[in-house]
Amino acid sequence: MAESISSRQHQILDLLLNTKVGLSIDELAAQLSISRNAVQQHIDKLERDGYVKTGMLNKTAGRPVRVFVLTEAGINSFQKQYAWFSELLLTKLRQEMGAEELKRYLHDLAESLAQGLLPQFAGKQDAERLTELIRIMNELGFKARLNTSGEEPASIEAVNCIYHDLAQKFQEVCEFDRTLIAKLLERDIEHLECMAKGGGVCKFRTQPSALRIRETFTSALNRLPETSHRRS
Q: What are the recorded GO MF terms, alphabetically (predicted)?
């Protein structure tokens, strides 16, 4: 559960998890054996942080009573086993498909995701595309940044691998990142460093596309004097 939640607030969330219709301040106070004011303070904090919300009003003796229920964030504050389930799926897929087919499958999966994100990159130049990519990666939890220090070309660095444990066991997972970045930037990608292989960051550098290289070469050739064309 979230570290910012106190032990007493954990108890409140646990009671609400077990009572889907919600509980009132008085009901929570009775079950926790603490004052109504103390419960109100905890509820105010949990509501402010988005873990609980006001539920349906129960009418008792003609008087409406406000109850509180968990939000999605409140439900998700309890332990989940996503990594375990993902590992189970990848193990089965690798057994049935083989490592290369699994890698190709993850490549196709990343391409499908990229298709849904590409409209956000429409009309953007290279620098704008990089900014948008960094924003999307940070929304996913990568804690990404653009490294422009030094004499080498700029690189994309992620200091948090969002599936680090999985990538250590299934290095095919890295194909998902490489493909997604390449498709969104419309550039070939060089994977320079990988946290799953012991690197300090996951580091990617874009390479100019074959079309851009050809256009640059053609432009340079056209600027040569006519005599140079004849010699060549």
A: DNA-binding transcription factor activity
Q: What is the largest CA-CA distance in the chain?
A: 101
Give which of 92, 95, 202 is closest to 143, Cα–Cα: 202
What pLDDT digit, counting tens, does each position of 98-110 carry? 999 999 999 999 9
Alpha-carbon distance values, 61 to 28, 66, 198 (Å): 20, 14, 65
* 82-215: CATH architecture: 2-Layer Sandwich (3.30)
What CATH code would you report for 7-76? 1.10.10.10
Give the angle subtended at the CA of 136 by the CAs of 132 and 141, to the nearest 5°.
Answer: 145
pLDDT in tens, 42-66: 999 999 999 999 987 766 666 778 8
In total, the chain counts a number of residues equal to 232
Q: Classify 65 as helix, strand or coil.
A: strand
